[in-house]
Predict the 3D structure of the following.
Amino acid sequence: DAGVTQSPTHLIKTRGQQVTLRCSPKSGHDTVSWYQQALGQGPQFIFQYYEEEERQRGNFPDRFSGHQFPNYSSELNVNALLLGDSALYLCASSPLDSRGSALHFGNGTRLTVT
Amino acid sequence: AQSVTQLDSQVPVFEEAPVELRCNYSSSVSVYLFWYVQYPNQGLQLLLKYLSGSTLVKGINGFEAEFNKSQTSFHLRKPSVHISDTAEYFCAVSDYQTGANNLFFGTGTRLTVIP
């Protein structure tokens, strides 16, 4: 049973560019959440997708957007990249309304913005 | 609003010694509490969680944590650590309203086990 898979594992971009990160949830999970983990920090919630719609959003600018596909996989898009966007981006999946069921995390995508 | 404070950024401990990693939270509503572990270049793995009921929660790899509502704490403990426990540990909280998908994490505690 495959867990949460993310691609690519590493990515280097230049300021001002756009990037797309991809995530496939754990089998049986229909909800995908994205987190940003800056170096030396804990993960911060970006947003959550269910039924191809954004259901919750953290304190991130509109440059961060997402998408969920009918097969529950998801993409995170970041436009107009800033140096401060350099971080580990984590995807997590769970059943909807898990209310206590823990998130399952992927290994992340390390984004470096130069 | 919720927040999590992990008081120790780094904890060195000798192999086979006991360890406690401290976590305090603030929330105006009832909460769920979690401890996750992160090994280098990996995502987060759930160690244990508190939802309700018994305040002493047992997790994987011999870890346990105790929920203390009056002190708003959820400290993680292990009676005897191994080299393989060296990792970053994160405490996280969510509440009944937002569910368990929107977690607030602390800044982490780096546990280093010394041979």
Q: What stands out?
A: Chain A has no helices and eleven strands.
